[in-house]
Amino acid sequence: MAMSPAQAQQDMPQLGAIESWGCQMNEGKSMSDLMKVVDDWNEWSDENGLDAYTAWVLNPIFKANADFAREAGWFGYTPNFTEMGKGLHAWMTKGQKLNERFNKVWTCGWHSEAATMLVRPPTDGPSSAVVSFSDCTLNEGATPSDLMAATAKWNAYLDEQEVVAAIAYHFPGHGNPTDMTADMKISVWRPSLETYGRDADLYVNGGGRQMDDAIFGDVMSCDSPRMYAATLVRGGQAQ
Prior knowledge:
239 residues, alpha+beta, globular, Alpha-Beta Plaits, 33% strand
């Protein structure tokens, strides 16, 4: 079953907004070249009042068919769609010169948006992290209420195990593939690969997988996750 942001909101709290870009570094360009443009973009964002916008640059760690030397992405978040729209409008009307500079460093092949719910907040403010993404689908007969009840149980289990990961649900909007069959993406954010290793041991050797199956087995199914290094390039202010 497909679940739209409107359906999701019937049983869920206020949703934020994310935008993502999928890109390849141009020949002879590197992350250092990108960060020079990002520094100027941050000044531009300050000048245009984009105080609520948070952004990370993503580089693949575990991903099939990836170009690990050149592949990069952009993941931007605002606490609501009004702030996202404000930023997109400013970029479309005032950001042409900066966009030209970005395009000299990388070439982006897609741009999408999603409605986002932070179901397990981070212990601190935004920071650099390692993030895993999975595509997930509600099982036949499962409802958003079932999903939220299972999420509450999973969070309680993670609290008991002192897991510090943050988790968000992303419900697809504009720009997502027309043949996408998943209802949502789930992202799991951890402070470091060391933290991921501790969580992986809990999942594989400490009963976490069995608990996952017991809580979510009747509710949803997810595909194999992809992992990225997420470098924080702008930390927005909470709204």
